[in-house]
Structures are given as structure tokens and as C-alpha cells.
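This follows on from our talk about sequence and fold. I would like you to pick a protein and set down its sequence and fold. Go ahead and set the record down below:
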Amino acid sequence: MKAFTLYTIVIGSLLIFSCGEQENSSVIHRKGDVIPVTLLELNKGSFTTSIPASGNWTTNDETILSFKVGGIVSRIYVEEGDEIKKGQLLATLNLTELEAGLSQAKIGFEKAKRDFERASKLYQDSVATLEQMQNAETALQLATEQLKAVEFNFQFAQIRASQNGFVLRKFINEGQQVFPGNPVLHTNGAKEDSWVLQVAINDVNWTQIEEGDTAHIEIGNNPEGYLLGKVVRKSQSADPATGAFSLEISPEKKDHLNLASGMFGRARIFPSKQAEGWEIPYESLLDAEGKEGFVFVTQDQRTVAKVPVKIGKISNQTVQVLSGLEDYPFLIVSGSAYLTNESEIQLQKQ
């Protein structure tokens, strides 16, 4: 009895396997077969999709502050993160050498002034020549300009805040020697609510976005989960290192953002410019690579043609086709895997 039962199970398994093979073989199509397909009528229209982007928060008025002249840093009065006011003294050089230079310039000016006055009187008394008097005048002019230059440099041996804001970074410590133009402090005008989200986009998205386009900016401390914003600047050249283009997105409400320079941010941009083309199901696209792909189409609903198309945006369900379908009324949606160029087709009911 047990042997009979085992024999029955084995025979039954072989029958099921054989049936499975027959069922699977029914979907294998050979060359010359008529392939069942489903069609989509092609209608050209306008479409647009949102563009995701990410970047960092910054302000348009970030400034690198430095000394105009070189020297030894005497004092730095602020630390990173400190709030500053316009005109506030932030750093100063050791003024010993500069004060000595200023004193020498003043002495030189006073001497040139006396020499000119003496030469002028002697010239009036016909004791000094015109050339001597003119040379003294020239020496006075040179001493005057030299004094102005030294006074100007002395003034910029100090760094003062150019605007209200915060200290973002300190590059130099007290006691260090700096040269003219070396970065000392990095500040911004965050107190003036000038925050923007600076994002990077590729060249395709750059052509679709215009200044003034709306955007949703993701921010955690907003009850709605995002802030309304708009594109306020669009770069006209790509970054030479990355090849990406830059956009600046400004939020409509800038108060209480609780941001810091360099903080990561995300946005979704809604281009106002619409593209012309066709929106087709994702499964109908074949051999996509970059901005190119292929689809099967039909004019007479009896035979098909494989044609190249230019691709726009791709999502999970649809693909935007920008060109390539101008001369075809119907697209093959399902059954494409079994088709070749000029395959015969039979329409299936959807």
C-alpha cells in the first residue's frame, strides 16, 4: 500500500511538471509568429515635472575680512559664532611699526613744507632760482601723498564689521604674522534675513528653470514641512570642477529660520516652462541609455517599427518623450519583449 502511494505521488509530480512545461512553452514566440500586444494612442501635449535639488544654506552678503597691510596680529576680539554689529572693532595689528612709519611720514611732510616756504621766500627775494622753488614744491607734494598713504594704511590696520551678522570662521589667531589680503575672519549678514538655499543642477534641468519659478524648501522646524520660495538667481556658467550649474532659492518667510551657514537643505522646484512631447508608460521604453531610448510603434496596427526617441524626465510609471514619435499614431505598451522590427501583431483587449 505504501509503495502504491509513493508511486502515485511520483506520477502526479511528473504530470504537474509536464503540464507546467506545456504552459510555459505556450508563451514562447518564434520568428514569424503573430505577437499579441496592447496599444496606446499617441497624443502630443505639454507637460512639466518638479525638479528635486539639494545644496547648502548661505547668504548673499558673506564677506572675507582681511588687513590691508601685513604685520603681527595683536588682538582678535570675536570668536566663531559671535554676533557682530556694523562698525564693531573685530581685530587689530600690532601698531608699533605702523606708528613709527606714520611718525616718519609726518616728519617728512613738515620738513618738505618748511623747505617749500623757505624756497618761496628766497625766490621772491631773487636769491633762489625758479627751479629750486619748483623742486621744493614737488618735494612737498610727494611728502603730502606719502603721508596720506601711510594714514590710510594705518586706518586699515584694524578690521571692523561691514554689516550686522555673525562670525562664521576665524582663520588667524593672536600673535600670528599676516600678509596683506590674508583671510582673517569670515562673516555674514544673517541678522538681515538674507538666507538663500544654493543648490546644484545639471544642464538639462538648467534649461527648464527660470528665475522666479516657485519652489518648496524642506525645513524641519516648519509645521507644514516646507517653506514656499522662488528661484532668485540662475548661474550663467558651470562649475569647472563638477560641471554643475548653481541656483539660489530664497524662502518667502525668512524670520525664525534657525539656520547656519553651510547647513544642508533640499528643495523641489516647479518650472513654469512646459515641454512639448508625449508621456508614455515606463514599460514601453527599451534600451534606454542617457537621453536616448527605443520604443515599438505601429501605423496600421498590423506590423511594428522600432524607432529611436529622445527622453526627458523618467519616473516610476511614466517617461517623457521629447521627439521621435511625430509620425506614429500608436505605441506598443505590452508585448515589446517578443517583438522585432516589422513583427506582425494582434491586438489584445486591455
